[in-house]
């Protein structure tokens, strides 16, 4: 028994020593060892995504995020925050509410050309809606955003018409009548806007009204009387054109209606282009005065 004991012990020590040396050769310093059966359990416990999920995830990462109009409004609102003040958001507020509608003609050759114009960086011009000759309506800006359609303009005491108005462009070169399909589409749109924003009927006007020295749109072909009969804009009472009193001041009358009378000649021409149509000279005839007096009485 004692002899067998001394023979067994060296063999056991040799096996342990060999195993220790082998581990030292194969194992890098400070490297943790994971047993094979443990590694298998770890892999089995991980839920791997299927191929469809992996492809969808890779495609989602490749597509840049698109900002909605509401996101852009939020960015604009954040840009208006005083960086020197603390910030916490209130929950009661309104976004810009349009109170006027300004009607234009495009003075271009097609609705596609106008849409392209409003999408070029250097043009610096836009409108909320464009309406084609066939009645197609294209919205290009959210109603709550401020478009660049009015330019340098004035109506009444307002000198920044872009901030309180909606701009509608009609595909028309300014030298042709407006098709019925186009006007019907315009009337439907105006009805929606008037109801939605509670816009007064007097506040549906043309670009030439607010910028008489620069613009003549929507031209003498535009049917203002037809729109006024539907509640969009003002027209005179053709059956009751009383003579204007001797003391009637036509300059004050134009100003009260809304025209900028800084350049009275331009204001008179803009007025006659809209209401007289057949004569757009700077001189007011007796008939012109009757029309102006009739309109003036609706405002004052």
Low-pLDDT stretches are 1-29, 31-44
Roughly how much helix do the residues carry, as a percent range?
A: 40-55%
CATH superfamily label of the domain at 93-235 = Peptidoglycan recognition protein-like
Q: Mean of the pLDDT scores?
A: 84
Tally of DSSP helical segments: 11
Q: What profile does the largest beta sheet have?
A: 5 strands, mixed
Enumerate the strands of the largest sheet in spatial order, edge to edge or round the barrel: 3-2-4-1-5
Question: What gap, in angstroms, lies between the N and C termini?
Answer: 132 Å
Write down the secondary-structure element order: HHHHEHEEEHEHHHHH
CATH class wording of the domain at 93-235 = Alpha Beta
Enzyme class: hydrolase
Protein name: N-acetylmuramoyl-L-alanine amidase
Domain N-acetylmuramoyl-L-alanine amidase: 86-219
Pfam families: Amidase_2
Task: For this entry, give a set of tags.
11 helices, alpha/beta, 5-stranded mixed beta sheet, 300 residues
In short:
This protein has 300 residues and is α/β, with parallel strands linked by helices.
Explain the layout of strands and helices.
Layout: H1 2-26, H2 36-45, H3 51-62, H4 69-79, E1 100-105, H5 111-117, E2 129-131, E3 137-139, E4 165-170, H6 180-197, E5 204-206, H7 207-210, H8 224-229, H9 250-257, H10 264-275, H11 286-299
Parallel strand pairs: 1-4, 1-5, 2-4
Antiparallel strand pairs: 2-3
Helix pairs in contact: 9-11
Keywords: Cell wall biogenesis/degradation, Hydrolase
Protein name: N-acetylmuramoyl-L-alanine amidase
GO molecular function: N-acetylmuramoyl-L-alanine amidase activity
């Amino acid at each position: 028994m004692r002899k067998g004991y001394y023979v067994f012990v060296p063999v056991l020590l040799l096996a342990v020593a060999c195993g220790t040396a082998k581990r030292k050769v194969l194992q890098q310093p400070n490297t943790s060892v994971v047993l094979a059966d443990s590694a298998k359990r770890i892999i089995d416990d991980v839920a791997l995504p299927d191929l469809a999920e992996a492809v969808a995830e890779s495609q989602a990462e490749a597509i840049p995020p698109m900002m909605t109009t509401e996101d852009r409004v939020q960015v604009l609102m954040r840009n208006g925050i005083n960086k020197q003040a603390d910030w916490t958001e209130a929950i009661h507020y309104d976004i810009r509410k349009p109170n006027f509608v300004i009607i234009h003609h495009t003075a271009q050759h097609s609705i596609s050309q106008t849409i392209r114009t409003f999408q070029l960086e250097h043009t610096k011009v836009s409108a909320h809606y464009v309406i084609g000759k066939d009645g197609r309506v294209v919205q290009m800006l959210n109603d709550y955003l401020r478009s660049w359609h009015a330019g340098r303009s004035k109506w009444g005491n307002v000198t920044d018409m872009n901030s309180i108005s909606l701009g509608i462009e009609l595909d028309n070169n300014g030298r042709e009548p407006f098709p019925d399909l186009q006007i019907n589409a315009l009337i439907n749109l105006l009805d929606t806007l008037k109801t939605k924003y509670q816009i007064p009927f007097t506040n549906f006007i043309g670009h030439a009204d607010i910028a008489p020295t620069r613009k003549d749109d929507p031209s003498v072909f535009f049917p203002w009387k037809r729109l006024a009969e539907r509640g969009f804009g003002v027209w005179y009472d053709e059956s009751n054109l009383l003579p204007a009193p001797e003391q009637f001041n036509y300059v004050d009358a134009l100003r009260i209606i809304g025209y900028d009378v800084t350049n009275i000649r331009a204001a008179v021409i803009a007025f006659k282009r809209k209401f007289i149509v057949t004569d757009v000279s700077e001189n007011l005839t007796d008939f012109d005065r009757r029309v102006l007096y009739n309109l003036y009485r609706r405002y004052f």
